[in-house]
Design goal:
By secondary structure, this protein is mainly alpha-helical. It has six helices and four strands. The N and C termini lie far apart (43 Å).
Amino acid sequence: MESQNLSREDYQSALRVGEVLRERGWRRAFSLPQMVEGWSGLIEEIREGYDWCTDEYRNDLVCREWLDQALPLLTEPVRANWQVIVDQLDEKFREVTVDDGAAFWPFGVTDPWWLRRRPKVLIGELARDLGCNGGDGTSAAGG
């Protein structure tokens, strides 16, 4: 995040966002860098071959959900800086995932876009959970 022209209020918004979200029900006060790193790490893990189960995959997506809730709580200069980073990561996530058209996930068009996506290449437990064969992302039903 660029530090030029940021006010005390800007810095406070970045420091306080985790506590605000904890007060709203998140289990602890995460920081913006923690959750951006979590989102980045998940994307890299998907790129390398995500082989955990569907429950773990859904759990790992909460870092993006947290970011979605956090960004509007920031002052505009801080949000703009972090939004650029999140947008770049979102694009990388789209590159390594596909919209499954609600074929496997119980999420619909009203749910956040990242919840409707799954890794392009399915391996391990995730492939088994989703009924795919060969680890190539194809459905056992011929899709």
